[in-house]
Every structure is written in structure tokens, then in C-alpha cells.
Design goal:
mainly alpha, 0% strand, globular
Length: 254
């Protein structure tokens, strides 16, 4: 073992010899398991339930933040990854900014509650556009994830088989967000313009996000696992300062 490398610094791809195995490992880390999914979803559910039952917007925001804060404290105590809790807290913070924006624009409390969900829709839209554009440009985003692990950000693009695999996976990865935007966006607009009751729009968005949204994500992940199970593309990390093999005995040197 290199004396400068500690166990904590061991590269993520040690013991992984195919692109498919590496992507599976990275996806497992990115998803965070059931706990990570709960930490991402529960604060939004708490906000919606309290808002609909009490009509107290501030208390709903505070309660969702308290739930996320408790989850963060537990993560810190257990010395485990805080990524998913911090994502939830960031979402609450951005939602609070949009709530204040709706309030300053003269919106009712129902309009403010609806504004809480707008950042999530916009982030999903941006996420979908970026991933789709990367595929259309021939540089699928998932390939850069491989590059960050192997140590060369673009070497994966030289292998067309890897490019095709990453392209398929990236398209599948963006589908849940794209469907979410297509369904939640019109509902948000209808609630914002009073075409439907804003409270009903809040409920519909929550159902689409935490109900149908997770069904779509699970379906997407299942499809990705199926794609990853079909092939075994060798993973080749760049080799630095590779020595030139000496000529065999009897061979001349020009």
C-alpha cells in the first residue's frame, strides 16, 4: 500500500473492474437507501400536513426545519453521511425564500404555501435540461461521474461502448424528473392562477412528488440495474508514467 494513502482515502473504484460495477456502486451511494429517501421526503410531507391542518405557514416551515434538523443531528452523532439531510435543509431554505417572495408580491397564505414547492419544480426542470443536453451533445453526464473516479475526466469518451452505456443510463436517470415537471408544472400554474384551489394544488403536488415521484424513481433505478446487468465493460483507469517495455532479446532498436 502506498504509505501516503490511508484507508479513508482509498479510491472508490478499488476492487471494481467494470463500468457496470462502478456505476452500481456509485448509484447505491447517490440514492442513500431508504433512510436517505425518507430524509429527503419527510420534511415536505410535514410542511404540507401542518399547513393544511392549521393554516399556520410559519409553524409549518419551522416544523419541517425541526424534523430535518433532528435528522441532521442524528447523522452527526452517528458520524454518517449528512448529504441527504443537508439537501432537505437546502430545499426548505430555498422554499422559504420563495414563500417570502410570494408574500412580498401580495399573495395569500395559500399562494405562499404553493410557492414553497416551486423551487423543486424548477430544479427538476434544470436537472432534466442539463442531463438531456449532455446526451444530445454526445457527452452524457453519467460519464463524467466515471471520469471523476478513474482520475481522467474525459478518457471514458474514447470508448464508444462506454459512451453508449452512459447515454442510455443518463436518459433513464432523467425520466423521473422530466415526468415530474410535466405533471407538477401545470398543477402549480393552475393553482397560482386560481384555476384550481391552491390548497388542492398543494395536495396534488405533494402526491405527485412523494407518491408517484418515488414510484418513477424506483422504476428508473430498476431499469438502470437491468441495463447494468446486461454487459461487462472493462474499467480502465489512466496509468501515469507507465514504463516502456524493454525490447526482447534479439530485437533491434532503431
Amino acid at each position: 500500500m502506498n504509505p501516503e494513502t490511508t484507508p479513508e482515502q482509498k479510491p472508490d473504484h478499488v476492487g471494481v473492474d467494470t463500468v457496470e460495477a462502478l456505476v452500481r456502486a456509485q448509484l447505491a451511494r447517490a440514492l442513500g437507501g431508504r433512510r436517505g429517501m425518507a430524509e429527503a421526503a419527510v420534511p415536505g410531507i410535514v410542511f404540507t400536513v401542518l399547513w393544511l391542518s392549521t393554516k399556520e405557514l410559519q409553524w409549518a416551515l419551522i416544523a419541517s426545519l425541526v424534523v430535518a434538523g433532528a435528522a441532521l443531528l442524528m447523522r452527526i452523532v452517528q458520524r454518517s453521511s449528512t448529504q441527504f439531510v443537508l439537501n432537505a435543509i437546502f430545499g426548505i431554505g430555498i422554499g422559504w425564500v420563495f414563500v417570502r417572495w410570494a408574500e412580498s408580491s401580495g399573495g395569500s397564505e395559500s399562494d405562499q404555501a404553493l410557492a414553497f414547492f416551486l423551487p423543486g419544480i424548477l430544479i427538476s426542470l434544470a436537472y432534466t435540461v442539463v442531463l438531456g443536453a449532455s446526451c444530445l451533445a454526445g457527452w452524457p453526464m453519467l460519464g463524467f461521474m466515471l471520469g471523476s473516479v478513474t482520475g481522467d475526466a474525459t478518457a471514458w469518451h474514447e470508448d464508444k461502448q462506454v459512451v453508449r452505456l452512459c447515454g442510455r443510463l443518463t436518459w433513464v436517470m432523467l425520466l423521473p424528473g422530466a415526468v415530474g415537471v410535466l405533471l407538477q408544472g401545470p398543477v402549480w400554474i393552475a393553482g397560482h392562477r386560481d384555476l384550481i384551489d391552491p390548497d388542492h394544488a398543494v395536495i396534488a403536488i405533494l402526491v405527485l412528488r412523494t407518491g408517484l415521484g418515488w414510484v418513477l424513481r424506483i422504476g428508473s433505478w430498476s431499469a438502470m440495474i437491468w441495463l447494468l446487468a446486461r454487459n461487462a465493460t472493462p474499467l480502465q483507469a489512466p496509468v501515469e508514467n507507465e514504463p516502456t517495455p524493454a525490447p526482447e532479446r534479439g530485437e533491434g532498436v532503431l
